[in-house]
Amino acid sequence: MKNIFNPLNTNEILDRIDQLRPDSHPQWGKMDIAQMLAHCSSFQDLAMGNSTYPRSWIGILIGKFVKPLVYNDKPIPKNMSTIPTLIIVDQREFEEEKEILKQKIIMFQRNGPEKCTTHPHPFFGKLTSEQWGKCIYKHLDHHLKQFGV
Fold first, then answer.
1. Which Pfam families match (predicted)?
2. Could you give phi then psi for residue 53, rounded to 5 degrees?
């Protein structure tokens, strides 16, 4: 399974981000391209430990049972719900958000697994650094497919 800690997988993601255009439209979902980029940046902050959110009650109940969805080769289903605090609704600037996300991905990859957060994921709970690396790749892949790249 692909993992953002693998430089080849990181480069693939960065190349795909570079293929995005300001007028790219989602194939599903409500966020526009700049909002999606900001959403992905917020998720990077979560994985880096720059932001934390309390566990949701539903995550506490079923998170550990659905956690295997994070680290398998199946794509994330379209329109899967997200952490409410990571939904971006305000207007954002495409080029700025694109560059911010790319820099966060590069930093996360360079910092390596040892600097990955130890805080639990708000839904899935405790993740190993390897699980975070797979989760980050899979999350980015999901949203890049959402916008056709």
1. DUF1569
2. -135, 145
Percent of the chain with pLDDT over 70: 100
Range of the domain at 113: 7-13+30-146
The answer as to whether 2 is a domain residue is no
Cα distances from 86 to residues 53, 74, 112, in angstroms, run 10, 23, 23
The pLDDT of residue 7 is 97
Rg of the chain over CA atoms, in angstroms?
Answer: 14
| Rounded Cα distance, 72 and 104, in Å | 24
Tell me the two tokens of residue 148. Answer: 């056709």
Contacts of 116 (CB under 8 A, 6+ apart): 47, 48, 49, 108, 129, 132, 133
Residue 44, H or E segment: helix 33-48
> C-alpha 121: how far from its chain's center?
12
Task: Please check whether residue 22 lies inside any domain of the structure.
Answer: no
